[in-house]
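Journal club prep — side note

Before the paper discussion, L.F. wants everyone to see what a predicted structure for a comparable chain looks like in C-alpha cell form. Sequence:
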Amino acid sequence: MKHELGSIDRALRERARKVVPGGMWGHMRAEGLPEGYPQFFARGEGCYLFDVDGRRYLDFMCSWGPIVLGHKHGEVEDAVRRQAADGDCLNGPTARMVELAERLVGLVTHASWVMFSKNGTDATTTCVTLARGATGRRKIVLARGAYHGAVPWCTPHPFGVTSEDKAHAIHCRYNDIASLEAAVDQAGDDLAGILVSAFRHDYGVDQERPDRAFAVRARALADARGAALILDDVRAGFRLSLHGSWHPLGVEPDLSAWSKAIANGYPLAAVAGNDRFREAASKLYVTGSFWCGANAMAASLATLDALERGNGPEHMRAMGQRLRDGLAAQARRHGVGIRQSGPPQMPTVLFDDDPDFIKGYRFVTEALMRGVYLHPKHNMFLSMAHTEADIDFALQVTDEAMAAVAKL
C-alpha cells in the first residue's frame, strides 16, 4: 500500500523540474523517502505540519532539527516581528549580536566567546579552519561515517570532490579508543584537531551514545598533542543539554559548532570557544553578507529563554521516552523485531532483518497515511510542542503500522 501524492504537490514537482536541477537538492529531497511523501509544505503549527494539499501530519522531523519549541512559537515570532520593524540586514550587527553572545557564553560551559554564521557547515568549517590556524598544523581526526556538513572537506558524497580536498582527514571509529589513538598517532606532529559528534548519528545505522571513557581519552589526547578538541553540536545542541552535549559527561571541548535548534527555525549558526583560541579567532577571516542578521538573533534569544524556562531537554527526553516505551511494547505484541537507539530526544527506529529497509518503508508509509510523519533511516527529533496527548496519538497510529509490518 502506498500513500498517494496530492495534486498540488505533483504539479509543483513538475514545475520545479523545469527550473531546479532534479526538482530538488540535498537532504530535503523527497525522492529519497518512500513513495508518497510530500515534497512541498504550506505551514506548520506546534508539532504539526500541513502539506500543500492540506493534509496534516504530526511532525517527528521538526524541519530536520531546527524546530525545537514547535512551529510558529508565539514568543519567537513576536521577537522577530519586533526586530524586523527596525531592520534585519544592516551595515553591521545590532545590539542583538552582543546580547546573544553574552547569553551563549553564560549557557555553554566551555565558552568564553562566540562567533556567528548561518549554517551548520559554516560553523564546523570555521572550527576546523580555526584549529589549523591556531596550531599551524593540518590534520583533522574525525569518525568514519560521521556527517559534519556539505562542503568538500567533509561531505560524504564524492561527486565533485577531489582527493586533495580530504587529504588531511584521518578517520577513526567513533567510541573506539584504540582506533582514535591510532589516528592521532598517524597524524603525528601535524595534528590540528580531533572532531567529534555529540553522539554517533550516522545515517541508516544504529546510533551510539558517547562512551565517557572515549570522551575523556579524546580530551586527553588533544591536550597531550596541543590540538583542539572540537565538538560538532550542530544536530544535538540544546536538545540533550543547554550547556553542551558533552557537558553531562564532564568533558568540555575547546571549540564547538552550533546551529539547527539555536533559533527555532530561523537561519543561524555559532562557533563557541575557550580562551585558548580567542586570539586566533580574532585573526580568522570568516564572513557572510547575512551572518549578522538581527531577526535570527532575536529569535535565538527568545528560543533560549523558552528552553531554559521550560527545561526543554528534559521535556523532550520525557516525550521521547514515552514514544520509545510505546513502540517497544507494540513491537513485542506484534512479534516484530525493532532496534531503538540514540537519545530519546532524537530517536532512531530500525527494524531487524531489514537490510533494504522494506519493513522500515512500510512502517513509515502506513504512519504517514494516518497522519504521522516519521523517517525510516534518519534520526528523528522531539520538540517542546510535543505533549503526552500527541505521543499517545502517534502510538495509536504506529500500532496499526506495526501490525502491517508484522504481515510482511
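L.F.'s comment for the group: The two ends are 12 Å apart (CA to CA). Keep this in mind when we get to the figures.
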